[in-house]
Design brief:
With 331 residues, the protein is of the alpha/beta class. The protein is built from 14 helices and eight strands. Strands 1, 2, 3, 4, 5, 6, 7 and 8 form an eight-stranded mixed sheet that branches. It is globular, with a radius of gyration of 22 Å. Belongs to the REXO4 family. It is found in: Nucleus.
Length: 331
């Protein structure tokens, strides 16, 4: 029991962790759960049932093979249907950035992605040259080529599709930065956005957003950022980030970033991943984070004797997550 208490003190098990639908094992990430179910050394009982009734995308165990077929028709998504919106994106003709001062209903979620070209004498300096923002319905809010503040020495055409003529009359970086910053803050001062509720500011979704925001020189509080590269359930068992290409293949069921890459395609993938994580159904808890003041003494050393007399189920009931689960965005 002493070792179990020490384990619970450092593991931060909670209702928000990916959990095996057969044996109820708690895993730190979906990759860890995938290894438990179908990895090189799976638990055989769980593997056998998963092979019959398990979804290979969300890793859920369904009630029957028929229920699995119905579920996978919804869980397996198809690639982006570009249509007229994507065609306009490729032309750089979309700009619907507006500040509504919070009058829109519900929390507003947008996804952002940018593509970079090379600068500097060694051509390795990343410069933002194309940016896209979409809403929850995958509609393009903003798409523009961006004119970097210093000369471009490598257009990286093989992956970006960007040519000199695209940037010649493009919107300057400073103007893009100001418009996106104002749009995300949505009329709120930065000090209020940093508060737990974030006010009227928009939730920003993306992959590797630290890099993207840095390239655009946009400052935005981490409390309003949902980064698929840093979300613990979507990371590797080694706690390193997965690529967006891998996450899209593994959890959505289609390929992206083949040949010339479009930021719209990246936006759609990150938004779909975010919505899939947000729609998970977890038991509601008061004060769901281990960092909440009410939970700081749950596994305090002075409670060792009391904790050792608890059952594993009782300890799990007072254990809390050390990360913010995206399902809480829909609360």
């Amino acid at each position: 029991m002493e070792h179990l208490v020490d384990h619970m003190r450092t593991s931060f098990h909670s209702v928000h962790e990916p959990t095996c639908g057969v044996c109820k094992k708690h895993c730190r990430s979906f990759e860890s759960l995938r290894e438990h179910l179908i990895g090189p050394l799976p638990k055989q009982e769980c593997k056998s049932l998963f092979n019959i009734r398990g979804c290979k995308f969300c890793l859920a165990i369904l009630d029957s093979p028929y229920a699995l077929r119905v579920h996978q028709d919804r869980c397996h998504l198809s690639g982006v249907n570009y249509g007229i919106l994507a065609h306009m994106a490729n032309l750089g003709l979309r700009d619907s950035l507006t500040i509504d001062n919070g009058y829109a209903r519900g929390s507003q979620v947008v996804a952002l992605a940018c593509k970079t070209v090379g600068g500097g004498s060694d051509r390795s300096l990343d410069l933002c040259a194309r940016v896209c923002i979409i809403d929850e319905n995958e509609n393009i809010i903003f798409h523009s080529y961006v004119k970097p503040p210093i000369p471009v020495t490598n257009y990286r055409y093989e992956t970006t599709g960007i040519r000199p003529e695209h940037l010649r009359d493009a919107m300057p970086l400073r103007q893009v930065q100001r418009r996106i910053q104002d749009f995300l803050c949505n009329g709120e001062p930065m000090w209020k956005i940093r508060s737990p509720k974030g006010g009227k500011a928009r939730i920003l979704v993306g992959h590797g957003l630290d890099h993207d925001l840095d390239q655009m020189q946009v400052e935005y509080p981490p409390i309003m950022i949902r980064d698929t590269a840093k979300y613990p359930p979507l990371m590797k068992t080694s706690k390193l980030s997965n690529s967006l290409k891998y996450l899209t293949q593994a959890y959505l069921g289609y390929d992206i970033q083949n040949g010339i890459q479009d930021p719209y395609e990246d936006c759609v993938a990150t938004m779909r991943l975010y919505l899939r994580m947000r729609r998970q159904v977890h038991r509601r808890q008061d004060c769901p984070l281990a960092s909440d003041p009410q939970n700081r003494n749950n596994f305090a050393s002075w409670r060792q004797g009391e904790l050792e007399r608890m059952s594993p189920e009782e300890m799990l009931a007072i254990s809390r997550s050390d990360y913010y689960c995206w399902c809480l965005d829909s609360a």
